[in-house]
Amino acid sequence: MAEVLLIDRRDGYHVLTLNRPERLNAFTEGLHLALREALDECGRDDNCRAIVITGAGRGFCAGQDLADRDPTITGENPDLGRTLETFYNPLILRLRGLPKPVIVAVNGVAAGAGANIALAGDIVIAAKSASFIQAFAKIALIPDAGGTWWLTRHLGEARAKALAMTAEPLSAEKAAEWGLIWKAVDDDRLMAEATKLAEHFANGPTNAYALTKKAIHAASANALEAQLNVERELQREAGLSGDYKEGVAAFLQKRPANFRKR
Ligand code: LHQ
Asked: In testing the pocket of ligand 1, which one of 65, 66, 141 has its CB within 8 Å of the most ligand atoms?
């Protein structure tokens, strides 16, 4: 049986490919477990300083594999709250909490939880032919995997509600124009752009990136004064690092910083 998740361990970063192309990389428990293990591995591995997540075939991810929990076969409605608690919510928190940059390269349609898992990345780059679909309403569900949070935070209520309630596809270019993702690129440039960024991060100040993620995540919940306090504490930590010393030395000596030597 083909592996549901491909892991390409490169110099400084890993590329994870969701690999159920015949089902547009829809999530099963097996895929959840494999992705969880791969993210934890990257978290532990000092040589993994960034992650790229993409999909095999023509889609990025169609969300939950609906055949995996078909209520018309079992006769019973599954407890979806439990599924979220066991699989999706921990995945979203893992992606957000990973102390390394997570780049999502959206190669094709991203639907349902697949769209929202993509949006959990730190930097989301999409192929121009890709689209984001909050498909949930079509099966009488609500957006999950952080969907109500990302859409409302990034786009505001008007667009969040319209996308969620119509389940209309949002093109990659529109998603970039609206500020939902970082950028849309020509399809044949997608992986080159994503891996170029991963290489850049792999040679960058990993801990400063982790602290930046923390600070920006905290900003959503904080008033200005509280956020200034967060910045003070995290900057103190950043300023005590060897990377900061190296960055300043490199600047003054007019040479590229070597953040990998620590
Ligand atoms: C699929 C799927 C799929 C199985 C395409 N499952 N086979 C969380 C907690 C727990 C449970 C419930 O859900 C959640 C969160 C969710 O994610 S709910 C939302 C689940 N996702 C969807 O509702 C999206 C369903 N898929 C679609 O609407 C379409 O496939 C899209 C718009 C993504 C793509 O359309 P097309 O490009 O026309 O492709 P297709 O529909 O022909 O799909 C290709 C194949 O993939 C097809 O199989 P087949 O054997 O006919 O070739 C589909 O049945 C299969 N597939 N999504 N989620």
From this structure: 66
